[in-house]
Amino acid sequence: MSAPKHPAVKINAAICTGCRACSVICALSHEGALELAGARIRIEKHLPDMDKRPIFKPIACRMCVKARCVAACPTGALVQREDNGLVVLHTMLCDGCGQCVEACPFHAIWMDERHGVAIKCDLCGGDPMCVRYCSPGALSFSYAGENESGRG
Q1: 40/58 Cα distance (integer angstroms)
Q2: pLDDT for 86-104, tens place per residue?
Q3: Which one is predicted more confidently, 147 or 18?
Q4: What is the pLDDT of residues 143-152, one digit of tens each?
Q5: For residue range 41-80, what is the model confidence (pLDDT) as tens digits?
Q6: Cα(57)–Cα(64) distance, rounded to whole angstroms?
Q7: How far apart are CA 146 and CA 95, in angstroms?
Q8: Can you say whether residue 151 is alpha, beta or left, with left for phi > 0 and alpha for psi between -120 and 50 degrees?
């Protein structure tokens, strides 16, 4: 039996314009309203040099093959599915301790201050809305091993 394919949103920060359409559609699809605090993808803005345009970096869960957040979670709220490697967050089990946040080397899981629990990308059940609505094409859906780099 072959190893499961690990799905993830692949990010090409070099072409991200910072429009935040990904965060908006994520919030709308998960919260039913324009509540950006509920978005499972964030855009960080970096100003490397005042004479150059800002660099925008989308941040979303990479669905790591060896997910440190899962290992750090003391309540079992974070699990990694054996069939496809998807890292799943069960918010009802989350106690808000933040150990998963500290464990993620990519800062791709954070605390939802509104509800006191962790929040992360869930790939929208396999059809990520952020990918569908990213006009510049900075986001794509892929599986581990398909031209990837930097996954944990």
Answers
A1: 11
A2: 999 999 999 999 999 999 9
A3: 18
A4: 865 444 444 4
A5: 999 998 887 778 889 999 999 999 899 999 999 999 999 9
A6: 18
A7: 35
A8: beta
The pLDDT, as a whole number, for residue 151 is: 44
| Domain ranges within the chain, ordered by starting residue | 7-143
Location of structure tokens 């496809």: 84
How would you class 127 by CB atoms within 10 Å of its CB: exposed for 0-12, middle for 13-18, buried for 19 or more?
exposed
Could you tell me the two tokens for 93? 């089990």
DSSP 4: P
Q: 67 Cβ partners below 8 Å, 6+ apart? A: 78, 80, 87, 152
Q: What angle do CA 131, 23, 112 make, to 5 degrees?
A: 125
β-bridge pairing 78-80 and 87-89: antiparallel
CATH number given to 7-143: 3.30.70.20
